Amino acid sequence: MSLRGRVALVTGGSRGIGRATATLLAQAGCDVVVNYIQAEDSAREVVEAVEQTGQRGLAIQADVSVEKEVVQLMTAIEAAFGRVDIVVNNAGINPSKPLVELTLLDWQTAIDQNLTSAFLVSQAVLPGMRERQWGRIIMLSSIAAQTGGVVGPHYAASKAGLIGLAHSYASLLAKEGITANAIAPALIDTDMIRGNDKIKPSLLPVNRFGTADEVAQAVLFLAQNAYITGQTLSINGGWYMT
Prior knowledge:
By secondary structure, this protein is an alpha/beta fold. The chain has one domain: NAD(P)-binding Rossmann-like Domain (Rossmann fold), CATH 3.40.50.720. Helix content is 44%, strand content 15%. The protein is built from seven helices and seven strands. It has helices spanning 16-27, 40-52, 67-80, 104-132, 144-147, 153-173, 212-224; strands at residues 7-10, 31-36, 57-61, 86-89, 135-140, 178-185, 232-235. The chain has a seven-stranded parallel beta sheet with strand order 3-2-1-4-5-6-7, sandwiched between helices. Helix 1 packs across helix 7 (212-224). The longest helix has 29 residues, at 104-132. The radius of gyration is 17 Å and the shape is globular. The mean pLDDT is 95.
């Protein structure tokens, strides 16, 4: 399915998987909104890469775990592009902490940044998708949702919630031309895994870290496919097999 002329929103799009996804969607013909929270220079670099493909790009700062900022984000997108056809809920954090030191604040922060953000953004784009009878909702979950992972229960629970959220949207919206899926990567070579002594390539059967481009290819695949919904694609080098 051609994506030419579609508008994509990539949250947390200034680096890593978000950056690779934004660039690949642009190459596929999408105009791309790059959401970021702090890395303005990096976000503008991604927009430049998008525009080099001949598509329109726009960087917008917003903390997507905060409802009023999501409203402001959508207002800016609608003014520039009129709509969102594809949303990639990629924004998130992975704060590793020993189990005995975890606090309620650690838990709530992980849930807000990783799960609530995806709910707020998805709810914001859904009215337009339902009106047009076309949409793609893609959640960036994690192998931690399937195995518990190495970061901690706060992170694993937030990422498992994304899979449940995708399942619910998929079942409720299947008849309206809207698909909802999740991607569960493991050990992708980005800033989010560097500096953690627990994370080593030897954990994976393929004995190497994955690349952001390999995850972005899965995002593009789901965006182009109208028949796949309610699924989780595991991009994990064979660590967890379903």
